[in-house]
Amino acid sequence: MTRVTTSLRDWAAERSAMGHLDLSIGFVPTMGALHAGHRSLLERARKENDCVVLSIFVNPTQFDDAADLERYPRTLDADLALAGGLADHVLVPDPADMYPDRYRYRVSENTLSAILEGAHRPGHFDGVLTVVLKLLNLVRPDRAYFGEKDRQQLDLVSGMVRALHLGVDIVPCPTIRDPDGLALSSRNRRLSPGARAAAALFPRILRESADAAGAAGALRAAGLDVDYVEDRDGIRLGAIRIEGVRLIDNVPL
Ligand code: PAF
């Protein structure tokens, strides 16, 4: 049975009880609005660990736009239904518990976090790294599972774990896509049917263009707003906006 914990004081008791059992712990941090991509992380964690912990926390500090935070889908009942049978524990903390310091203390990286997503979303990665560090400290997992769709986040979290000697194994998991190629994302559910159809061009153009500039041009010609397309270390990364919904993706070159 899945145990749901909302208070961090109760979580401390749960976690300490788990400590006595000598179980390996796999952790899947999320902001909820779970989909098949999250399910694949949970399934992998289930396969590789004795115990699986899922967190659902819409982290306010990683949103640079208050309207985007407001609109972020919150679907707790459906999330718990999806997690049932895969997660042993679901941690659903509230912001005041997570930020008793009101975000006076934060983790900041000063190189990779300044480009790509970081250049378009000021402060975003400080918020991500800070909340991931808090969650890793609370859960103390053996392994934590992150999707490759958020490539820059994955690289920054891996770098933080090495830099701060956190001793947790960060497991990269492949992007899960709809049959037309669009990467699964909690934001996809905000797309109108027309925008959803147009969004399928995004991964196709990223994959099929000869270079980053060509991809950006083809995306614009298709009527999509392009934040960036860049080729780095054998990967083409891009971000676009459709009807105010921001989508990111990356493909191997
Ligand atoms: O990828 C996400 O869902 C979030 O950025 C994360 C890692 C759960 C931190 O809030």
Q: Can you tell me about this structure?
A:
The protein is of the alpha/beta class and 253 residues long. The chain is 40% helix and 21% strand. The strands form 2 sheets. The chain has a 6-stranded parallel β-sheet with strand order 1-4-3-2-5-6, with helices on both faces. α7 packs across α8 and α10 packs antiparallel against α11. The longest helix is centred in the middle third of the chain and has 16 residues. Pantoate binds next to β2 and α7.
In terms of topology, how is this protein built?
Elements: E1 3-5, H1 8-19, E2 25-30, H2 36-48, E3 51-56, H3 66-71, H4 76-83, E4 89-91, H5 95-98, H6 117-120, H7 124-139, E5 143-147, H8 151-163, E6 169-173, H9 193-199, H10 201-208, H11 212-221, E7 225-232, E8 235-242, E9 245-252
Parallel strand pairs: 1-4, 2-3, 2-5, 3-4, 5-6
Antiparallel strand pairs: 7-8, 8-9
Helix pairs in contact: 7-8, 10-11
The protein binds pantoate.
Pantoate binds next to strand 2 and helix 7.
Question: Quick recap of the structure?
Answer:
The chain is of the alpha/beta class. It has two domains: 3-173, HUPs (Rossmann fold, 3-Layer(aba) Sandwich); 186-247, Pantoate-beta-alanine ligase, C-terminal domain (Pantoate--beta-alanine Ligase, Chain: A,domain 2, 2-Layer Sandwich). The protein contains eleven helices and nine strands.
The count of helical stretches stands at: 11
Could you give the distance between the termini? 43 Å
CATH class of the largest domain, anyone? Alpha Beta
Task: Identify the CATH homologous superfamily of the largest domain.
Answer: HUPs
Supply Rg.
18 Å
Summarize the amount of helix as a percent range: 25-40%
Bound ligand species:
pantoate
Question: In one word, what is the shape?
Answer: globular
Which fold name fills CATH's third level, the topology of the largest domain?
Rossmann fold
